[in-house]
């Protein structure tokens, strides 16, 4: 039995300390003992020298215990806690017992009474540190080997998680990179779409330049006090963000809402969130950076993290914010009678593009041909709205007014990507530049008429004799979606290769119900996908493209 105490597991020694700290077995002290034992057995041992992730349920405290290495009268230790979401409460409690307890107990049962007699002063439980908030906080202290420590964590807002790092090794460097004495980020320049930043170098960068780098986080919501908190916010938006994705050059598979850009040794990842974009840019050891491609007149928040690439541990500089400059009012473009112009609209900024026309006739007609994307048209006459709608295909607006009435056309992309549209203003009696359109611009294919080397397609015509040209293009399975999505409905046959042209023909029918034509395209390869396009030409040569049709020839005939 003399050697029994030396072979007790650590957790039993800790329980012994708890039990020994209880006074005479009164009903109250017995209840306290039960509570202490319950808390201990429902807690975990905190590892030394390792970062631990702690998951918290709302309003349910979680406890971690640790006893530092025996044989040292005073041992320095540090504890760093990083909240990854909402503010939390955390405390450090010390259970202090007599230093002679464990030593005397090791002598065996004969000396148990002597131990009890020598224990003159009762053990104490004291709170040595307490914090509430969502900042990264570090406690530094000295420990006696006869003390048992408990960390208690509580989240009162919602389920969350934190990271905890305990270390007693103060000589072999830090897990977390060091921050400079002045950890602020300075804004040194602001433009319409750019913000220039600089910050003091981290001492860790100067000491371990190959393992340390800076990463910048840009968003429109608020500053983040840790990289852990930023990653949690991105995940909560519905994305599956791999840990430290922005900090690793490993080829992770990005989600559809993410875009990765690697240029000039800089890694940029753009995450599409409901609250706006969140950009993560890692630029090595440069301590100045100009953030490009921002929106004018928008407030952005900037956070810089210095990251240890070996451990993925990071430290946060004090975040800052800046508002980009307002963009000057765009010049209003004058429209001229009969002239067709094409306009590209920025889908990201979603600004209005303005056109103006002073009427030279009482009756006028606006023509809009949607080339790509989604566009909203707003037309005013002398300041009053006369038309407002989202357009598709070819759209005409015939308006009446007086001579010298002022019409203003405002165009805006309603999608996330760029849009383009053709616009023409003309007198009502003017010969139209755009062709008369059929009821539908769909191309139909006949499955039963498909062979190994031919397909038959059909499309609608009009009551006007017009020219139609058919083009084909061989494509692969994985190109179908991109080909259909990237189609510019305003681009004519001049953008196609001569080898893709199949034929051109004229036709019409006075009876609209019978204005249908078919064409069999031969000389195709078996089991192959083809993209077919039909172009309809107007009197002035402007073409309208039917909706592309993908057809696959039969493999066997």
Automatic annotation (TrEMBL):
Domain of life, per lineage: Eukaryota
Cross-referenced Pfam families: NDNF, NDNF_C, NDNF_N
Annotated GO biological process: nervous system development
TM region(s), chain numbering: none
Locations listed in the record: Secreted
Record key words, sorted: Glycoprotein, Neurogenesis, Repeat, Secreted, Signal
An example Gene Ontology molecular-function term: heparin binding
Any one GO cellular component localisation term in the record: extracellular region
Name of this protein: Protein NDNF
Organism: Psilopogon haemacephalus (coppersmith barbet)
